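Researcher: Re-running this chain for the archive, since the previous output was lost when a drive failed. Same request as before.
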Amino acid sequence: MNEYAVPAPHPASAHPARVYNVWLGGKDHYPVDQEAAELAAKANPTIVPSVRANRAFLGRAVRHLAASGVRQFLDIGTGIPAAENTHEVAQRAAPEARVVYVDNDPIVLSHARALLVSDPKGRTDYVQADARDVDAILHEASRTLDLTRPVGLMLVAILQYIQDAEDPWDITHRLLDRLAPGSHLVLSHPAADVTAPEVAESMRIYNERAASHASATPRTQDEVRRFLDGLEILEPGVVTLTRWRPGPSDVLDDTLPMWCAVARKV
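Model: Regenerated structure tokens:
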């Protein structure tokens, strides 16, 4: 059994994928997830608009990578399928794109069919694994992706669930080390230094109700920038969600407490 495997969902504990599903307006969650999501959002009213802005950032980043010639994506911390999943955005721009999704929640696996609907010219796959298990992820992903060619590594709102003691920076760099030059890291992360009191309180409420493996830690802009060490950070740098290459109709909102960035491996 994988040492990082998560037991079957238990209604006594909230889980990130299911809490996120509540914030996105989905129906695939338990009462404990609903409670955690609602109480956290009450403590920090920016959570729901942040989740939606985070989804929009993912779409803009994937479209940029596809326009830059990236045709492979490794999306870790997939969550329960929603609108505009990575493969939908990527294959709309480049039908031949290949996407591998990774998550450790069995409820996500139960929805994998929705993630595996690929354009006939492309391909999608799903791996049940924990973000900490770098070797397993890359071994399984290599069945679908050619790791000798550039990959878009998607770590979107996932690294907060890996504690400092587990060294999420090392995990990120071990993933990148095995990817080809020209690969990109797409990253977003809850901020500890934007609307800090509200973020701290909402995280406390969530962590009290979450399983021990799924507690969350917000980080500062400098701590988030460490994930990009050794990479070429694309403009506009490490910014709040709506500041990353917004479209003409996008509304800027610097109160949303999440940092994001896209960076290239040279």
